[in-house]
């Protein structure tokens, strides 16, 4: 592809060439002088040793104490294993076999593995039928999680960092866990940043982690479509995610944001210097990002920087599955346009001809204003110019009884996959989530797999393509009416 170069750039390039030549000559002369000096010093040293009488051999100095040693980063040689986990709502069936371990099973396994500590960062807690005023048999999985967690709270260290509940929110689950022995701190995000603590992750024994879209809500296990990842036996990565948890824990007590953050919250792993480790026996580059920027200590890549960087590296395709997509500050007053991600997608499609696919949720709570923005993106489609952005809406069907469950039956995924990278996050994609709301993400870049198991990137791609081509997704057309289409699909696709 030809690149246009301005006259000023040509002048700069010529000056840089001349400057490089001048410096090269100067360095050559300095090198010759240094070589001559080094040879002279070697000759004088040899002559001095020859003429000086030898004394007894010097006694070796004792090794420096450990307190004087410089800190070293972990080698990260742990046999880290990563698995994708999903919640598939009851009644949702796919022809494809690309399904994974359930989030319920993953959480139960993590609690079974816990020996010393369990830290959970969460938005809210509604794990029982009592919380939602329902009598759903499918709530039993959430109730089992809560019971098991309460039993653990009396045996080992359980810490929970949670968004400060609103007056109308129930607090029964947290009260029970606290009485069982769990330590709980609420983070008043409204006062700190005007946002919420939207993060959803676990850190177990400082060596296992879960991160993904599922809230501590029984509906996230059986009535809402979710996706996340569990990483086992990976203390180097768990320690880094633990630093993000410690930031929430600190804020829950101080209720003020330090500037700058103490060095203990800093990280060496980010988009420029990712953590190098074997993941499923495959060399991998991994890092964790966080939001909002004010919560990021030195070295931490923000969620927005992470997303833009992953898009910028894509050469072939960008697939995105999120519940909400809005190029606005969704909750701000007055209204504000926010196009950072939207512009990056258009740039990738236009400048590098990257194929872009967005799979967005459609349910009764979908904001109608989202549709015009998505239509605008979908209009960047022209085969002759090789422009290829497509948008589909995913509808989770409901039976009459399932329709009565509040805030359920929705695709709640929050991930992106490109030809190079898997990005698994906890945030919806509108400006507030990256500016004022607390979120986090796992970013994995793997080389060609050296094991029989497929890479995380290829597994996540298969999940997206399964959902994209399923009976539950419908192309976004210019005459699309959000309420009519969603309602129609909720009654028709369930019979498929």
TrEMBL record:
<keyword id="KW-1133">Transmembrane helix</keyword>
<dbReference type="GO" id="GO:0031901">
    <property type="term" value="C:early endosome membrane"/>
</dbReference>
<comment type="similarity">
    <text>Belongs to the phospholipase D family.</text>
</comment>
<protein>
    <recommendedName>
        <fullName>5'-3' exonuclease PLD3</fullName>
        <ecNumber>3.1.16.1</ecNumber>
    </recommendedName>
</protein>
<feature type="transmembrane region" description="Helical">
    <location>
        <begin position="26"/>
        <end position="51"/>
    </location>
</feature>
<dbReference type="InterPro" id="IPR001736">
    <property type="entry name" value="PLipase_D/transphosphatidylase"/>
</dbReference>
<keyword id="KW-0812">Transmembrane</keyword>
<dbReference type="InterPro" id="IPR032803">
    <property type="entry name" value="PLDc_3"/>
</dbReference>
<dbReference type="GO" id="GO:0043202">
    <property type="term" value="C:lysosomal lumen"/>
</dbReference>
<dbReference type="InterPro" id="IPR050874">
    <property type="entry name" value="Diverse_PLD-related"/>
</dbReference>
<dbReference type="GO" id="GO:0004527">
    <property type="term" value="F:exonuclease activity"/>
</dbReference>
<keyword id="KW-0378">Hydrolase</keyword>
<keyword id="KW-0472">Membrane</keyword>
<dbReference type="Pfam" id="PF13918">
    <property type="entry name" value="PLDc_3"/>
</dbReference>
<feature type="domain" description="PLD phosphodiesterase">
    <location>
        <begin position="193"/>
        <end position="220"/>
    </location>
</feature>
<keyword id="KW-0269">Exonuclease</keyword>
<keyword id="KW-0540">Nuclease</keyword>
<dbReference type="GO" id="GO:0031902">
    <property type="term" value="C:late endosome membrane"/>
</dbReference>
<feature type="domain" description="PLD phosphodiesterase">
    <location>
        <begin position="407"/>
        <end position="433"/>
    </location>
</feature>
<keyword id="KW-0677">Repeat</keyword>
């Amino acid at each position: 592809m030809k690149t246009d170069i301005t006259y000023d750039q040509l002048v700069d390039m010529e000056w840089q060439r001349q400057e490089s030549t001048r410096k090269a000559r100067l360095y050559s002369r300095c090198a010759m002088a240094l070589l001559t000096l080094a040879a002279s010093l070697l000759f004088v040293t040899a002559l001095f040793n020859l003429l000086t009488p030898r004394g007894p051999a010097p006694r070796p100095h004792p090794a420096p104490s450990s307190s004087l040693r410089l800190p070293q980063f972990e080698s990260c040689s742990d046999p880290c294993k990563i698995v994708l986990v999903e919640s598939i709502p009851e009644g949702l069936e796919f022809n494809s076999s690309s399904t994974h371990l359930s989030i319920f099973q993953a959480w139960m396994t993590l609690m079974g593995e816990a020996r010393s500590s369990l830290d959970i960062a969460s938005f809210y807690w509604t794990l029982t039928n009592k919380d939602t005023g329902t009598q759903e048999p499918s709530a039993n999985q959430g109730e089992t999680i809560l019971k098991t967690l309460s039993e653990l709270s009396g045996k080992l260290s359980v810490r929970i960092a949670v968004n400060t509940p609103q007056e109308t929110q129930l607090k029964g689950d947290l009260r029970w866990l606290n009485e069982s022995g769990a330590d709980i701190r609420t983070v008043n995000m409204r006062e700190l940043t005007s946002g919420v603590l939207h993060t959803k992750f676990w850190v177990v024994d400082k060596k296992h982690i879960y991160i993904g879209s599922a809230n501590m809500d029984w509906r996230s296990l059986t009535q809402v479509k979710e996706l996340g990842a569990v990483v086992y036996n990976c203390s180097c990565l768990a320690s880094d995610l633990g630093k993000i948890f410690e930031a929430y824990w600190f804020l829950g007590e101080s209720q003020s944001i330090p500037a700058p953050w103490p060095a203990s919250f800093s990280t060496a792993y980010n988009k420029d210097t990712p953590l190098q480790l074997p993941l499923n026996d495959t060399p991998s580059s991994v890092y964790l990002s966080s939001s909002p920027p004010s919560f990021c200590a030195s070295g931490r890549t923000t969620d927005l920087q992470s997303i833009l960087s992953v898009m910028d590296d894509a050469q072939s395709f960008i697939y995105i599955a999120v519940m909400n997509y809005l190029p606005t500050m969704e909750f701000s007053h007055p209204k504000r346009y926010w196009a950072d991600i939207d512009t990056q997608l258009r740039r990738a499609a236009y400048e590098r001809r990257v194929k872009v696919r967005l799979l967005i949720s459609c349910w009764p709570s979908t904001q109608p204003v989202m549709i015009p923005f998505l239509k605008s993106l979908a209009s960047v489609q022209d085969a002759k110019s090789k422009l290829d952005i497509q948008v589909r809406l995913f509808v989770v069907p409901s039976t009459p009884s399932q329709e009565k469950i509040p805030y359920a039956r929705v695709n709640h995924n929050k991930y992106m996959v490109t030809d190079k990278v898997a990005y698994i996050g906890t945030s919806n994609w509108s400006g507030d989530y990256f500016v004022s709301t607390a979120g986090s993400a796992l970013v994995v870049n793997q080389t060609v797999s050296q094991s029989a198991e497929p890479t995380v990137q290829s597994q996540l791609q298969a999940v997206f393509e399964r959902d994209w081509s399923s009976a539950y997704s419908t192309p976004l057309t210019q005459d699309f009416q959000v309420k009519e289409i969603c309602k129609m699909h909720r009654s028709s696709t369930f019979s498929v």
